[in-house]
Automatic annotation (TrEMBL):
The gene is coaE. This is Dephospho-CoA kinase. GO terms for molecular function: dephospho-CoA kinase activity. Residues 286-305 are annotated as: Disordered. ATP binds at G11, A12, G13, K14, S15, A16.
């Protein structure tokens, strides 16, 4: 199945994107909803919160008083981290269970507000970030959620900045106009990228890169895209290989085809063969070609042309011919 991470700053419209993806057929796993479920009355999560913060964070009915808890942890880094250690592992466990329960061929979208902040981006095949201008977000929070300007400003400032989100984003969805426009962009993403990406992933098929594709001007996105892809591979295979951005797009200021070339260096042919299945699961299926002892892989994502060469190297990094 295709695993997609969805995030965005408060007021950007992430929930509207999640609803539209659900209408198109995605399986939505809502981290906020699960964070509530794991601390419902009678759960061990709630019991641990009471132990950590006291009975003052409960309502008279014995449920979690979220405003009271929020007041306890807001602005207190140690308290926030203590709360996260209670909630995050339980949410991850629940997420894993729901993901495993999804039908084969599903596009599973994890709606995670703090995806960037907690370093989850590399665990997905694709990350979507919903963006909106700060002024638009402030207006939505005050008009639609009833926050004061000061409260809305504090909530925005407490989250990571737009630059960090953009760096983590394979796809940026801008949401500053009407709902119809947002839905059109989501539908285009669904049909042109997510559905074929899942099909390619399931069938072990990579996107063929046209060797005659035109040279284009240098794109500042190339090194960021390469960094995301390398982090994704590193997350999936561990520290068993040396992974580098190579080729024309790795050279600053140079025209190139819009293709990210990666080199994965391993010590032995057996290690190279052992990576084939894992790279396929991560979205980089094996393909014919490559000059022995190289193994060639390509990207299954139709929106990001990628070529990956797995190169057998000696123990000191010298290539084995």
């Amino acid at each position: 199945m295709l695993r997609v991470g969805l995030t965005g700053g408060i007021g950007a419209g992430k929930s509207a994107v999640a609803r539209r993806l659900a209408e198109r057929g995605a399986v939505i796993i809502d981290a906020d909803l699960m964070a509530r479920e794991v601390v419902e009355p009678g759960t061990d999560g709630l019991a641990e919160i009471i132990e950590a913060f006291g009975a003052g964070v409960l309502t008279p009915e014995g449920a979690l008083d979220r405003p009271a808890l929020g007041a306890r942890v807001f602005g207190d880094e140690a308290a926030r981290r203590r709360l996260e250690k209670i909630i995050h592992p339980r949410v991850r466990e629940r997420t894993d269970a729901l993901t495993r329960a999804a039908a084969p061929g599903s596009i599973v979208v994890n709606d995670v507000p703090l995806l960037v902040e907690v370093g989850l981006a590399s665990s997905y095949h694709l990350v979507i970030v919903v963006m909106a201008d700060r002024g638009v977000r402030l207006e939505r929070l005050t008009r639609l959620r009833g926050m004061s300007v000061a409260e809305a400003t504090a909530r925005i400032d407490a989250q990571t900045g737009d630059a960090s989100r953009r760096a983590a984003a394979d796809v940026v969805l801008t949401n500053e106009d009407d709902l119809e426009g947002l839905h059109a962009r989501v539908d285009e993403l669904w049909h042109d990228r997510l559905v074929p990406f899942e099909s390619n992933l399931r069938s072990g098929r990579s996107v063929v890169v046209d060797p005659d594709s035109p040279m284009v001007e240098p794109d500042p996105e190339w090194p960021r895209a390469a960094a995301r892809l390398i982090a994704r591979i590193r997350h999936g295979i561990g520290d068993v290989a040396d992974i580098q951005h190579v080729g024309p797009t790795s050279v600053p200021g140079r025209k190139a085809r819009d293709v990210i070339d990666l080199m994965v260096g391993v010590g032995t042919p057996e290690e190279a063969d052992g990576l084939a299945g894992k790279l396929g699961e991560l979205g980089f299926p094996a393909r014919p070609g490559g000059v022995p002892p190289e193994r060639l892989h390509g990207g299954a994502d139709p929106g990001r042309p990628v070529e990956v060469r797995v190169v057998v190297q000696g123990p000191r990094g010298g290539r084995v011919d």
